[in-house]
Write a structure and sequence with these properties.
Layout lengths: L3 H4 L3 E3 L8 E3 L6 E6 L6 E7 L5 E6 L7 E5 L5 E5 L7 E8 L5 E8 L12 E8 L5 E7 L5 E8 L5 E7 L14 E7 L5 E7 L4 E10 L5 E9 L7 E7 L5 E17 L5 E9 L2 E9 L7 E4 L7 E9 L6 E8 L12 E6 L5 E5 L7 E10 L5 E9 L4 E11 L7 E4 L11 E6 L8 E6 L6 E7 L1 E6 L7 E5 L3 E2 L7 E2 L6 E5 L4 E3 L2 E3 L6 E9 L7 E10 L2
Antiparallel strand pairs: 1-2, 3-29, 4-5, 5-6, 6-7, 8-9, 9-10, 10-11, 12-13, 13-14, 14-15, 16-17, 17-18, 18-19, 19-20, 20-21, 21-22, 23-24, 24-25, 25-26, 27-28, 28-29, 30-42, 31-32, 32-38, 33-36, 33-37, 33-41, 34-35, 39-40, 41-42
């Protein structure tokens, strides 16, 4: 199967509202779209897939004066942008699904910022509720009398949220030594009421528990590191298991290093991304823990010659449980201050076998270092990426948000599209799964003229008919050809030239009616769209073929 990354022509990327479009070169990991924050030195803090296909992204200028939430649809269009409170010294950490269609926003706010009333200490956490349209419905501070900062949040599946943070307040969530750095997890229910706080003290250690996930079967897995107060040795890996009623169940310390990412597996085990530190540098780690006997494993990087490597995040790739791990390797042996090793995504099978490596490349010199990755319910991947110029050794001061093309393409291309009025060829591909019983197949087309009308076609065989029906381009379908014309099926391309359609495998259109596509059926899809190139007023995209299994 020809990989999607090898087929993608350079893509146009849409920036934040008002930002200029940017041309992207071909990359090993295919890109559907890319966003800039649109603010100087801006960065994406978090990204959360929402029910229905949209995502919620948090951006910041690193000063706390321009923290914003963007709701972005699957085509990459920003639906709205909003903030919480006003003024400086207010940060947004994460947006999670709330009750009904509402959203829960968590973050931190300084005592001096009065836009959120009820200050408790120098810094407080807050929990806010906003509507699906971004309208603020409620907000409340929480914490102790000193310093309480939110780092991460995890939905509880019932409209509430678990909040992970750091506290210097001795009395918040229990009792601790004044000035010691502890971690906390707090649970807020769907009504916004704080149900419990679990304080995790480190004794002689400061804690930095940075992310968490609710494991299959219950319990929260909280991961990060700890280090001795003062000028102690390297930090030490740390995992804490907490019940859904707020009780610490188990604490585990690992080697020198840190856990940076965690993802749950359906059998109750977890996947971890992080690093281990030794006398010669840092080794990136990808691990499966708490699995059935004989199923736990740890894969290590770097490759020979690279002395510093980090595992940033980990998640499923949407295809049969295979996972993706992100690394950045630095080679100090060449006395150079810039990255010379592998940067990108390493895919493993669920039993720990390395399958492939991919790099996100924006130009011959500029590569992406993926810092966080999320997968939505349809198998789409969204990543927060820093960019690094290998030619000059320069790290860009901002980060970008990208939607990645399918990590393991399920379709093959049977013919190419013709160049359209944008100067590009429209490419149609498939996302989701080719397993029939899952019924999660989605068509998506990139490189379309903005706002053009798109009609999807389907057949069970391929062909090559140049100029069919007077159109520019080639009709790639053969035999009996069906058209997706039910209400909502005819699409309009976004401002980025993107269109998508969910395919109902039990109702594939044909000239004589709808048919059920069963296991073993081969389907070929293509997009016809309005265009104007030297006379003809329509065009065809490439065609994608899949055989259901």
């Amino acid at each position: 199967m020809k990989r999607l990354a090898q087929r993608l022509a350079p893509m146009l990327a849409l920036g934040f509202i008002g930002a200029a479009q940017v041309a992207l070169s071909q990359s090993d990991i295919g890109l559907v779209w890319l966003h800039h924050t649109g603010i100087a030195n801006g960065r994406f803090v978090s990204v959360t897939p929402l029910p229905g296909g949209d995502i919620a992204a948090v951006i910041s200028d690193n000063q706390g004066s321009l923290a914003r939430i963007q709701r972005i649809d699957p085509a990459g269009d920003v639906l709205w942008s909003t903030g919480i409170g006003a003024g400086s010294d207010i940060y947004i950490s994460r947006v999670t699904p709330g009750p009904g269609s509402d959203l829960i926003v968590t973050g931190s706010v300084a005592e001096m910022n009065g836009s959120i009333p009820g200050a408790l200490g120098d810094w407080d956490g807050y929990v806010a509720r906003i509507s699906a349209e971004g309208v603020l419905l409620s907000v409340q501070r929480f914490g102790g009398d000193m310093y309480d900062v939110v780092q991460e949040a995890e939905p509880d599946g019932q409209g509430g949220v678990y909040v992970l943070g750091t506290t210097l307040s001795p009395s918040f969530g229990g009792s601790g030594a004044p000035g010691s750095r502890a971690s906390f997890v707090a649970h807020f229910d769907a009504a916004g009421t704080r149900a419990w706080v679990c304080r995790i003290d480190g004794g002689a250690h400061d804690l930095n528990l940075r992310t968490m996930v609710e494991r299959a079967g219950g319990a929260l897995e909280v991961v990060g590191n700890r280090w001795l107060v003062g000028s102690g040795p390297d930090p030490e890996q740390m995992r804490v298991s907490i019940s859904l009623s707020g009780q610490v169940l188990a604490t585990e310390y690992g080697q020198a290093g840190s856990w940076n990412g965690v993802y749950r597996v359906a059998d109750g085990s977890i996947l971890l991304a992080g690093d281990g530190r030794g006398s010669v540098g840092v080794t990136g780690l990808a691990c499966r823990a708490d699995a059935s006997p004989g199923s736990a494993w740890c894969a290590t990087q770097p490759d020979t010659g690279y002395t510093w490597s980090y595992g940033y995040d980990i998640c499923a790739d949407g295809v049969d449980g295979v996972v993706g791990v992100l690394y950045s390797c630095i080679d100090f042996s060449q006395a150079q201050s810039f990255v010379t090793g592998f940067r990108g995504l390493i895919r493993y099978s669920l039993d720990g076998q390395e399958l492939e490596r991919r790099t996100l490349r924006f130009s011959p010199c500029v590569v992406g270092v993926i810092q966080r990755i999320e997968i939505d319910e349809a198998g789409g991947h969204y990543a927060i990426v820093s960019r690094f110029d290998e030619c000059t050794g320069t790290l860009f001061s901002d980060s970008v948000l990208v939607r990645l093309a399918a990590l393991d393409p399920i379709a093959s291309q049977v013919c190419q599209g013709m160049q359209n009025s944008t100067g590009r060829e429209a490419l149609t591909d498939l996302a989701g799964s080719d397993v029939r019983v899952r019924d999660t197949l989605t068509l998506h087309t990139e490189g379309l003229p903005p706002a053009t009308t798109v009609l999807y076609l389907v057949a069970q065989a391929s062909d090559s008919v140049p100029g069919a029906g007077g159109s520019q381009g080639t009709l790639c379908l053969g035999g009996s050809i069906g058209r997706f014309t039910r209400p909502g099926d005819v699409r309009v391309a976004s401002a980025m030239g993107f269109a998508a359609l969910d395919v109902e495998l039990g109702a594939i259109p044909t000239p004589s009616g709808f048919v059920n596509a069963t296991q073993g059926t081969t389907l070929v899809f293509q997009a016809w769209y309005r265009d104007n190139v030297a006379g003809p007023t329509s065009n065809f995209s490439s065609a994608a073929m899949v055989t259901l299994r």
